[in-house]
Amino acid sequence: MSGIFYNEYEKYCTNWLGNLMSDGHIPDGIIDKRSIVEVKADEIRDYDQAHFFAGIGGWPLALELAGWHGPVWTGSCPCQPFSSAGKQGGGTDERHLWPQWFRLIRECRPDTVFGEQVEGAVGFGWLDRVFADLEAEGYACGAAVLGAHSVGAPHIRQRLWWVATIRRMADASQQRTGGNAGSVQQENGRPEKQSRITQRTGKISNGKDGGTGVLDDAVSGRHLKPQEKIRAGRQRPELPGQSVWSAFDLI
Fold first, then answer.
1. Is pLDDT of 216 > 50?
2. DSSP designation for 14
3. Which of 122 and 190 is assigned the larger pLDDT?
């Protein structure tokens, strides 16, 4: 089997995904409308791509824009347990669905996994839990906090972005670069001290300009950095003016 698998529980979003496919905005695929709790590994093991908590198709669109057409899994776990606009129940919230997604990752072992979560999840130890689970299964991990303003949007909306790759790919990168796959360094190439986010290979450090530093891509060794400064912690960068989107920055 090949093709693309979309999993999304919310009816409004599944209808939206169908409309986007019909109009050619995202790749055609199977839309599974069940809760991820009901999805079994044997049902999805042979798909080229699998997008969980698919929402309105942001991940497949991003992959298309990036020119990525290979096998990959993506997911944006529900943010309500960690969002500053929610009850912040953390791991005790029934909407904390990382364990269910990890169950499928562990059984199917995709080569590359991309994920996203609200910045506030860092303070709940969410990223540490995710990386601990993945590293125990042989993945190398990296992460960065980036805002919508980093790509030119008129609002901040900071998010935690992370990637995990099977370690056989990361080992090859380490041999080429002579560094730790997924590590973060300053632009002068010197290792930077660890931040509060994680103490593992995918740590996010404080860059020399006060931002979050430069993320080493665990697969290719390329350096990724935001277009604008992202202040450490919750201090917001100064941006020109406000917009209609400003009210959503807390979500």
1. no
2. H
3. 122
Tokens standing for residue 201: 């290979």
Domain count, the chain: 1
Instruction: Name which of 87, 107, 158, 96 is nearest 129 in CA terms.
Output: 96
C-alpha dihedral, 250 to 82 to 85 to 142, nearest 10° = 10
Tell me how crowded residue 108 is: count the other CB atoms within 10 A of its CB. 16
Structure tokens at 246: 């400003």
CATH number at residue 124: 3.40.50.150
Examine residue 53 and state whether it is found in any structural domain, yes or no: yes
- How far apart, in whole angstroms, are the C-alpha atoms of residue 223 and residue 202? 13
Residue 32 belongs to a domain: yes
pTM above 0.85, yes or no: no
Structure tokens that stand for 209 in this block: 């300009």
Domain encompassing residue 152: 4-80+96-166
Torsion of CA 103, 109, 111, 112, to 10 degrees: 0
Smallest Cα–Cα separation from 201: which of 244, 126, 142? 142
